[in-house]
Amino acid sequence: MSATEDSYENSSVLEKLNEAIGKDNVTISKMERLLYSHDMAPLPKEAQVAFKVIPDIVVRPKSIEDVSAVVKIAAEEGVPITPRGASTWGLAGSTPAFGGILIDMLGGMSKIVSIDETNMTITAQAGCSWKQVYDAAWEAGFLLGSYPSSFPSATIGGWTSTSGIGIANYKYGSARDNIRSMKVVIPDGSIVTTGFERVSDNMSGYNLNHLFVGAEGTLGVICEITFKLTPRPEVLRPIAYSFESLDKAEGALCEISHSRLTVLHIGFSDPNHFKMQNRAGIVDHEFGSIILVALEGYKTVVDYEETVLDEIMERNGGKKEAPEVGEHEWEERCYEFRCRKVGLGSVPGEVIVPVHSFAKMTKDVYELMDSMKMEGAIIGIMADRNTVMFMPYYVYNSESMSKSVSSLSFDYQCGELAKANGGRMLGGFGLFFGSTLSQVRGEGYKIEVGIKKAIDPEEIMNPGKLLGMETRFGLSVTPEMLGFGMSALSAFKKIMGKDKNFEKKAEAYDLEELEKAKFEQYKVDPLKQEKD
Question: What is the pLDDT of residue 509?
C-alpha cells in the first residue's frame, strides 16, 4: 500500500471504514498521520526508511463494535493494524512498522463504564487514563491497586498491553494481578471476554487474562477492562528517608523485603534527579538520595509499621526527612521526568535485578552514563520483595539528533548490565527490542510464536513487534545484528563531547521565566487605563 492520501481517496478499505464507523472517525490527512508516527522516544530518520512508521489510515472508534468492524475490514483486506493509546512508552510499541490502519483508542474510547460497589470492581474503556480510573475508584470509596508512573496520561489499555510494573506494585502486584476480566477484539474481528467480572479466574484452563496482558497488542485489541478494587484505606502515609548515596540504601531495602512489613510502595531517586528537578524549579532542596516508602491501612497499623520502618532505616544509615518531603515526593511520584519542563526530552530505561544486586547495579549504571558522557539520573521502584526495577533516564536535545539517536543504545546497554547482575533486559520489547525476546524466553519463545500464529495467522495485528524485528523489505534483524548496532551507537556516543543540554536549556528557561516576571510586573491593564 502507498502511504499517500490520494491512494486511499477511492480505495475499498477507506470506503468500508467510512461506512462502518462514520467518515468523521476516519482520516487519511497526512498531517494527522504524522502525529502517530512516533511515541515519546526520539525516532531516527533511518527508522522511516527501514519501517513504514506513518500509518496509512487513522481511525477513532467509539465502541467495541466499532473496533470489531475495523478489524474485520483489515482482515478482509489484509491490512496491518496498530492499536495505540497515549504512547507514553519509548520503544515504538504503538508505532506502525508496516503502515496500515492505526486504531486510536484514546480518541473515542475513554469512558468509565461502571463501578460495582457490591463486588468491588470498576470497568473502563481502554482509552481511559489510569488517573481517571484511580480517581473514580477513590471517589467511590475504593483503592485501585498498581498503576504506572505515567498514570496521569498513560491509558489502561497501553500499560496492560506491556504488563507494566508501577506504583504500589510491591503490595498489589502488576497490571495482570488486578484484572478480573477484559473484552478483546481478536484478529478475525470476534469480541472475546477473557475472565469474569465478579469473581476471580482461578480454575483449570489457559488464563486468557494473562494471555493478552503483556502481548503488546500482537494478539488483539484490548477494548475494555474490569479491575478488582480494595476498600479505600483510613490512612495513606508517604515517608521519605535520605541516604548519602543511592547504593548505600541496599541494606535497608533488603531488610524491608525480609521483614513482615507489607508496604504499599517503595520508590527511589538519586542526587542527579534532584539536581535536575531543582534546576527546573520543581523543588528547592537537594538530597543525596531519597527512598520513598508509602504505607496504607488502618491508622493504628500504619503507626506501628512506621515505627518498625524507622528502626530499619536508622540501622542502615537512613535519615528520616520532614513529613512534607515525603508528601511532596508522593505527589510527584508520577512526574519523574519534569526535567522536560525546560524544553528537553527524556527517555527512561526499564530493567530489573534482584534486590541484593541493588548497589552493584547502581554503580554500573553510573559508570555507563559517564562512559557515554550522558546527562541522566536513576530512579526506580521495588517491584516485589526480591525485584527492583531501575528506570535510569537520560535527557536529550531533539535539535541534536546525532546525540539523541546514539543515546538509544543506552537502554540496550542497561539491559546487558541487568543480565550481568542476575536480572533481565526489559519490561517490554516493542519494535526496537523485539528481536531480543528469543534470548529472554529461550525454548519458551517457540510456544509464544505458536500462539501468535494460531490467533493471528495472517499476522495483521501489530506486526513487527515483540516476537521479532523485521524491516519493510522483509529483512529480519537478529539479536546479534541488534547487539552489534547498539554497540556501534554506544561507541559513537562515547567519542562525542559530553552532553550539556540541561545546563543550557535550564539557563534559557530561567531567562524566559525572568522575562515573564518582568512582563507581569510592568504590563498595563487596558481596562484600568481606559478608565483613567
Answer: 54
* Segments of the chain with pLDDT less than 70: 1-10, 40-48, 90, 283-285, 336-345, 397-408, 426-427, 501-532
- Report the distance separating Cα 186 and Cα 333, nearest Å: 35
Cell numbers standing for residue 352: 530489573
3-state secondary structure of 51: coil
Contacts of 395 (CB under 8 A, 6+ apart): 276, 339, 344, 345, 346, 375, 376, 499, 501, 502
pLDDT of residue 316: 98
Specify the pLDDT at position 453.
96
Rounded CA separation 188/184 (Å): 11
What Å distances lie between residue 285 and 16, 279, 448, CA to CA?
58, 10, 48
Q: Provide the strand spans (E) within 10-89.
A: 26-27, 57-59, 81-84
Pair 183, 195: CB distance under 8 Å: no
User: C-alpha grid cell for residue 212?
Assistant: 493478552
Are 250 and 421 spatial neighbours (Cβ–Cβ below 8 Å)?
A: no
Please choose, from the candidates 163, 148, 152, 154, the residue with its C-alpha nearest in 3D space to the C-alpha of residue 217: 163
Residue 223 · residue 285 · CB < 8 Å:
no
Burial readout 445-473 (b: 16 or more C-beta within 10 A, e: otherwise):
eeebeebbeebbeebbbbbbbbbbbbbbe
pLDDT at 400: 57
Give the closest residue to 30 by CA, choosing from 50, 63, 58, 51. Answer: 58
Count of Cβ atoms closer than 10 Å to residue 140 Cβ: 15
Residue from 126, 146, 150, 149 nearest 137 by CA: 146
Rounded-to-integer distance, Cα 268 and Cα 390, Å: 9
Q: Residue 79's closest CA among 192, 3, 162?
A: 3
Strands (E) in 87-164, as ranges, are 101-104, 112-116, 121-125, 142-144
What pLDDT sits at residue 395? Answer: 80
pLDDT, position 526: 42
Q: Is the Cα torsion angle 281, 285, 287, 291 positive or negative in sign?
A: negative
∠ CA 519-522-524 to the nearest 5 degrees? 105
pLDDT in tens, 61-107: 999 999 999 999 999 999 999 999 988 776 777 889 899 999 999 98
